[in-house]
Amino acid sequence: MVGENWVPKTRLGKMVLNGEIKTMDQALETRLPIREPEIVDMLLPNLQSEVLNINLVRRTTDSGRKSRFVATVVVGNKNGFVGVGMGKDVNVRPAIEKATRDAKLNIIKVRMGCGSWECMCGGHHSIPYATEGKWGSVRVRLIPAPKGTGLVIGDTGKKVLEMAGIKDVWSRTWGDTRTVYNFAFAVWDALRNLKKTRIPDEVIIHAESVQIPAEEGVEE
Predict the structure, then answer these.
(1) Domain annotation for the chain: domains and CATH numbers
(2) Which residues in 136-181 belong to E strands, given as ranges?
(3) Model confidence, pTM
(4) For residue 98, what is the DSSP state?
(5) Which of 72, 71, 76 is nearest to 49 (CA)?
(6) pLDDT in tens, the chain (220 residues)
(7) Number of neighbours of residue 7 by Cβ within 10 angstroms
(8) Pairing outcome for strands 169-174 and 131-135
(9) Is 189 helix (H, G, I), strand (E, B) or coil?
């Protein structure tokens, strides 16, 4: 069980182990950096992970040719939390473990909602408004979509959004999206940027309470 042999070294880790912080929302609200993956393991026990890509990288040094595996991993609970990470090692398994650890340290809370004017259901199947993210040469724009649209984005972006719990979204991309690492982090950055726009609580509450009539008459 997580926490039995864990000796936290950070202030946030000690607060989690002592029970002062019981949820990931509380941990993120402290603004303290997450530097121990055990924090995420304790607060999000149902976290899932998926390997997005594994590359074999070779380079020539003074001592000869060296090879390393580079893994890209996404983690999430499919209910508002997601993280992306990268790990390098001479063996595949340690590279995946390092990438998973890095992804946990990059965990974020995703602001979900229904910002599509075609839907306006007040649910949490999409995102509340359009957002953009950039990583390396890749730039991604995510746009709210009505319920039933699905994830209109490349496979890498689709896996990141699925781990976050988003079901419907439109997208537009620029750059070399074949670079899995940059593409995954660009989508992650777009989701992270959703939190940078401040929305009054009363607006959020009002949006969630809106009920759209099943059918309205139209005058000709």
Answers:
(1) 11-109 (3.30.160.20), 131-209 (3.30.230.10)
(2) 138-144, 169-174
(3) 0.85
(4) H
(5) 76
(6) 565 688 999 999 999 999 999 999 999 999 999 999 999 999 999 999 999 999 998 887 777 788 899 999 999 999 999 999 999 999 999 999 999 999 999 999 999 998 888 887 778 899 999 999 999 999 999 999 999 999 999 999 999 999 999 999 999 999 999 999 999 999 999 999 998 766 654 444 444 444 444 444 434 3
(7) 10
(8) unpaired
(9) helix
